[in-house]
Amino acid sequence: MKSGLRWLPLLLSTPWLCFGFVAASAQPAMTEAETLRLAKSDYVEHCGGCHGIQGKSAPALIPELRDRIGYFLCTPEARAYLIRLPNVAHSRLSDNAQLAEMLNFTVFGLGGASAPAGAPRFTAGEVERERKRVLAAGSLKKMRASLVDGIIRKCNAPASLRDLYPGQTKAQ
Ligand code: HEC
Predict the structure, then answer these.
(1) 88 C-alpha to ligand 1 centroid (Å)
(2) Atom of ligand 1 minimally distant from the CA of 99
(3) Other beta carbons within 10 Å of 130
(4) What whole-number distance in Å separates Cα of residue 114 and Cα of residue 126?
(5) pLDDT tens digit at each of 172 positions of the chain
(6) pLDDT at 113
(7) Residue 80 Cβ contacting ligand 1 at under 6 Å
(8) In this predicted structure, what is the pLDDT of residue 170?
(9) Which of 38, 47, 95, 151 to mutate to test the pocket of ligand 1 (most atoms within 8 A of CB)?
(10) Is 89 in the pocket of ligand 1 (CB under 6 A)?
(11) In a designed cystine with 69, which of 33, 84, 111, 166 is the match (CB 3.0 to 4.6 A)?
(12) Using a 6 Å cutoff on CB, does residue 57 contact ligand 1?
């Protein structure tokens, strides 16, 4: 009879083991508000120093993102360009899901109405794939020019999108 008691500690601890397992695996997913808060602070930390906290970089000669960067979701190549930019692909944000959310904040938040209606959000898988195809700095200008031509034709974007630094080049 005594030998039956050998299992008693295990039996008693089983519910606690299960509870621990469930508690560990049920780490609550971040709420939408928390995801957005993290994406915003990631943007401020990794991009805002150059592009401005509100996406307005003038008077520095850094591309404006505010109310225009969403246009790049218009074509698959232009969408991929956003991830393949050296400053984005090589961002210290190594977590692809986190970088995807930060890009979502950039294009849908800062980009505002320039993002085409119904454009899908960036995903971790897409970021993982495209950030490996980082663009060479020397080819950026040419590539951007041809992407923007396509965006203007297809999505009726304003011709001013051709200008990397709107408001800056005119003043010079
Ligand atoms: C050191 C300054 C700097 C940092 C940091 C930086 N960028 Fe940039 N960004 C630039 C410059 C300069 C360009 C113009 C293209 C180039 O030279 O890379 C650019 C281009 C872009 C463009 C293309 C705009 C267009 O109209 O073609 C996007 C989008 C962009 N950056 C987003 C980001 C995001 C998102 C981050 C944060 C991960 C970031 N950048 C970090 C300086 C910076």
Answers:
(1) 7
(2) 38
(3) 19
(4) 21
(5) 455 556 555 555 555 554 545 455 556 788 999 999 999 999 999 999 999 999 988 777 899 999 999 999 999 999 999 999 999 999 999 999 999 999 999 999 999 999 999 999 999 999 999 999 999 999 999 999 999 999 999 998 999 999 988 766 444 3
(6) 95
(7) no
(8) 46
(9) 47
(10) no
(11) 111
(12) no
Compute the distance between CA of residue 127 and CA of residue 133 in angstroms, rounded to an integer: 10
Quote the Cα angle for 102-81-46, to 5°.
35
Amino acid at 37: R
To which residue do tokens 């246009």 refer?
71
Q: Is the CB of 88 under 6 A from ligand 1?
A: yes
Q: Which atom of ligand 1 is nearest to the CA of 144?
A: 27
Of ligand 1's atoms, which has the minimum distance to the CA of residue 103? 35
* Distance from C-alpha of 70 to C-alpha of 65, rounded to nearest angstrom: 8
Residues 6+ away with beta carbon under 8 Å from 60? 50, 52
Contact 112, 71 (CB under 8 A): no
Rounded CA-CA distance 91/78 in Å is 19
Dihedral sign, Cα of residue 123, residue 124, residue 127, residue 129: negative
46 lines ligand 1 (CB under 6 A): yes
